[in-house]
Design goal:
This protein has about 90 residues and is an all-alpha fold. It has three helices and no strands. It has one domain.
């Protein structure tokens, strides 16, 4: 005599559980072509942080001001010589 086997009853799936199972199955079934297309889609580019300049030290600031000051004096002298060459003054 053949023994009758009792079938175990399957637990009913809730709607939420059924959705998660479907999603998981869909993730596993993606073709290689679909993955390649997904990889090619543009993603947001991350902007690089702007490079900050090193803050100037007090010595560098003083040197800069001194350089500008001396350049101004030299340029003023050159302009004066250009307008009126040396040794041609009117106060003779």
């Amino acid at each position: 005599m053949a023994k009758k086997r009792k079938k175990a009853k399957k637990a009913k799936k809730t709607k939420a559980k059924a959705k998660t199972v479907k999603r998981a199955a869909a993730k596993r079934r993606t073709s290689s072509k679909a993955r390649k297309v997904a990889a090619k889609t543009k993603r947001k580019t991350v902007k690089k942080a702007k490079r900050r300049t090193k803050p100037k030290t007090l010595g560098q600031r003083v040197a800069g001001v001194f350089g500008v000051f001396t350049d101004t004096i030299r340029d003023t002298g050159k302009l004066r010589d250009k307008l009126e060459p040396p040794a041609t003054s009117e106060t003779e």
